[in-house]
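Good morning,

Attaching, inline, the backbone tokens for the sequence recovery test we're adding to the shared suite. The designed sequence is right after.
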């Protein structure tokens, strides 16, 4: 309605201005008066200004009308309607992509042993292995004494060889020895050593100490060693007594076997 009112007023102003223009064109100007064209220009300018003012008033009226509409109070919400019936079940969706593999779980308990399988076929014979090194073809042995005390051959207080064996070949050997002793008088201690004797220093391989009280029974001692020698080294069993002429060695012997290596 506001727009209609402003449009009507604008038409009325334009009609009046048009009438003034027509009147000015019909009535001639008096002598010395303002020319008609000048008057028409002024009238046109006034008409345009009036039209502009009308347009501005119309815009202000529209703004006020919009604000009044927006500022109106909202009405109360209506009552909630009844829930409608459930619709039919939709079709199944497409299968999704396979997810990533999960972390490895802990190992389970060991299961019971399975039944014993059937015996397999006998395998074919393997190739013949290389020939091994030749075994020992000889042993070295030496002995002295018949097991009877010889009072004419007592031990002194310095080491003396009772049995000795020279090894002509360099190499590795296993040595076993044994000695038997008998006291001749009083208390005394017999010491024996299994030794290697050669170009270098004397080397003790094994040893024993045997104590005799007056009237003791005969005694024995055993010796064993593994040794590497150079050619013509000797293996000997040497004995001594801590008292002069108090004991004697009734028997002594050595058995020496060559071996490939000592591990």
């Amino acid at each position: 309605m506001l727009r209609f009112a402003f449009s009507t007023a604008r038409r009325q102003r334009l009609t009046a201005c048009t009438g003034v223009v027509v009147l000015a064109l019909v009535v001639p100007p008096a002598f010395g008066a303002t020319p008609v064209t000048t008057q028409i220009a002024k009238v046109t300018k006034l008409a345009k200004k009036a039209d502009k003012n009308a347009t501005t008033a119309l815009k202000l009226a529209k703004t006020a009308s919009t604000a009044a509409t927006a500022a109106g109070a909202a009405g109360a919400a209506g009552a909630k309607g009844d829930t409608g019936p459930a619709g039919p079940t939709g079709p199944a969706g497409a299968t999704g992509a396979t997810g990533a593999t999960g972390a490895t779980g802990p190992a389970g308990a060991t299961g019971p042993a399975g039944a014993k399988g059937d015996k397999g076929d006998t395998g074919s014979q393997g190739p013949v292995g290389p020939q091994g090194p030749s075994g020992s073809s000889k042993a070295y042995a030496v002995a002295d004494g018949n097991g009877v005390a010889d009072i004419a051959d007592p031990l002194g207080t310095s080491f003396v060889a009772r049995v000795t064996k020279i090894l002509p070949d360099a190499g590795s050997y296993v040595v076993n020895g044994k000695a038997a002793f008998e006291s001749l008088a009083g208390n005394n201690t017999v010491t024996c050593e299994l030794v290697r004797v050669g170009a270098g220093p004397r080397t003790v391989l094994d040893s024993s100490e045997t104590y005799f009280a007056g009237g003791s029974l005969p005694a024995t001692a055993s010796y064993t060693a593994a040794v590497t020698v150079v050619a013509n080294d000797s293996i000997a069993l040497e004995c001594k007594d801590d008292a002069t002429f108090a004991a004697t060695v009734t028997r002594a012997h050595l058995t020496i076997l060559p071996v490939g290596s000592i591990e």
